[in-house]
């Protein structure tokens, strides 16, 4: 027995020397020239990036499919570091990384960022910046392409605009923080201007806002028409196209006047599209005219308005003691309200489509909601609203898409005519119990208008023109001065309700 322990010790030493295979294979480094790397993509592409703005980080996975480890001799950019690309490898940033070990059957994460400088490309056209990410392993050279599409832009960073400013369409406008139109000043936005808004951005108008005030198209205006003014988030990746709440919205403040005009405009991705903010009911109420405009992908659950001291939901249009004339406009995918009118105001809604399918939200609030007070003010300041709906479609994903809070106080000031409505609350043919009866005046209740495509029938796509078999067809009545629809198509003598006139093939 006294020789057993020395014998075991000797065997252990011999095993260490003679059996290197006991070390895990994935940690043994191979120098075989055939051991190559694989990549999660052969090109790292950045969608259009505004100059002087850092992009979202892109990820590239580098795979070692070999059983044994490889030593990557060098990882670097082919071009100058930081012009425009920068790298983070295993958490460390720098121009070059050498002797990077990747275990067998393991991977390495490379993060790529790009910051584009001013380019002499014509302002309204994107430019391309290329580079290569180079890898050398066991004498093998491999590369991954880097592509970034850049675009020059006007930047408005917490800016008080010059009085009577004009935003031209020669290059995009990018908003950071609060961009303010001062009292007694006017901001005019030319046709075709694109406005991209960073997270937390807001356009605050204490003067006057004029969007596309003079556009008089002669032909059809399709959704991709270059003359439409567009407000959206500044994340350019396709994933963010339909994501709401990326920026705050457009606010018209108390005392801002009664001549705001928004025409041929597309407002999306915001917490609210348009806010008439007059919580103290200052006279005269701010007033806006909205024509041929779309509000989509809007949600701002838990918004906080400092003047109210409380949180509030978002909406396509939110009005706190404001007046709204809205014509030939579409509201869709609004997470709380498509249009919410609170604490009074006059609302004239004509030929509008409220098709508020909200697949991303569990919405409980009616798309059209009106009230004589503000829910977050205690005690409320009660002011009766005046509401007129003509030739509208109010439809969506819940059973009651129309709600008049405290309607008994302003029942005589509610008029709904020749509209298609989804409601269980107002089924009567006459007013009763302080509630309006809407089964009259040419209205069609709880009958699907049969849009061409909705999010329920075509995920990620929609078309809120009426189908050829729509029961809503020809149920509207002609209105003076409104002979054309959202797309500037003629309505004829027996028009359709909603923003779109159905055109027979």
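Sequence proposed for the structure above (505 residues):
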């Amino acid at each position: 027995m006294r020789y057993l322990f020395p014998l075991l010790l000797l065997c252990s030493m011999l095993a260490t020397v003679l059996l290197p295979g006991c070390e895990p294979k994935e940690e043994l480094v191979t120098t075989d020239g055939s051991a190559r790397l694989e990549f999660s993509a052969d090109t790292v592409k950045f969608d259009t990036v505004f100059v002087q703005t850092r992009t979202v980080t892109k990820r590239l996975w580098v795979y070692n499919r070999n059983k044994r480890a490889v030593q990557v001799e060098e990882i670097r950019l082919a071009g100058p570091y930081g012009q425009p690309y920068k790298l983070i490898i295993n958490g460390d940033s720098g121009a070059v990384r050498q002797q990077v070990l990747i275990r067998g059957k393991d991977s390495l994460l490379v993060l790529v960022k790009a910051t584009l400088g001013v380019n002499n490309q014509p302002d309204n056209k994107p430019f391309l910046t290329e580079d290569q990410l180079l890898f050398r392993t066991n004498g093998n050279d491999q590369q991954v392409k880097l592509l970034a599409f850049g675009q020059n832009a006007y930047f408005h960073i917490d800016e008080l605009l010059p009085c009577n400013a004009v935003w031209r369409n020669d290059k995009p406008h990018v908003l950071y923080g609060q961009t303010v139109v001062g009292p007694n000043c006017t901001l005019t936005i030319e046709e075709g201007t694109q406005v991209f808004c960073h997270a937390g951005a807001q356009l605050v108008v204490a003067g006057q806002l004029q969007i596309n005030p003079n556009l008089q198209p002669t032909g059809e205006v399709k959704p991709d028409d270059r003359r439409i003014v567009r407000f959206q988030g500044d994340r350019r990746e396709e994933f963010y196209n339909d994501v709401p709440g990326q920026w705050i919205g457009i606010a018209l403040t108390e005392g801002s006047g009664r001549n705001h005009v928004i025409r041929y405009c597309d407002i999306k991705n915001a917490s609210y599209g348009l806010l008439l903010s007059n919580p103290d009911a200052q006279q005269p109420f701010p007033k806006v005219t909205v024509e041929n405009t779309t509000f989509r992908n809007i949600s701002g659950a838990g918004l906080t308005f400092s003047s109210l001291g409380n949180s509030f939901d978002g909406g396509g249009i939110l009005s706190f003691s404001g007046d709204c004339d809205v014509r030939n406009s579409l509201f869709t995918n609004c997470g709380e309200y498509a249009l919410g009118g609170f604490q009074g105001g006059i609302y004239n809604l004509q030929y509008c489509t409220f098709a508020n399918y909200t697949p991303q939200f569990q919405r409980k609030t009616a798309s059209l909601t009106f009230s004589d007070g503000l829910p977050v003010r205690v005690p409320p300041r009660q002011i009766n609203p005046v509401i007129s709906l003509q030739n509208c479609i109010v439809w969506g994903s819940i059973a009651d898409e129309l709600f008049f809070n405290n309607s008994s106080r302003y029942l005589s000031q509610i008029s709904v005519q020749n509209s298609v409505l989804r409601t269980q609350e107002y089924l009567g043919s006459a007013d009763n119990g302080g509630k309006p009866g809407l089964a009259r005046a040419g209205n069609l209740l709880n009958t699907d208008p049969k849009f061409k495509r909705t999010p329920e029938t075509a995920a990620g796509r929609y078309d809120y023109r009426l189908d050829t078999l729509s029961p809503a067809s020809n149920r509207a009545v002609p209105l003076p001065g409104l002979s054309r629809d959202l797309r500037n198509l003629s309505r004829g003598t027996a028009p359709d309700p909603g923003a779109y006139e159905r055109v027979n093939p």
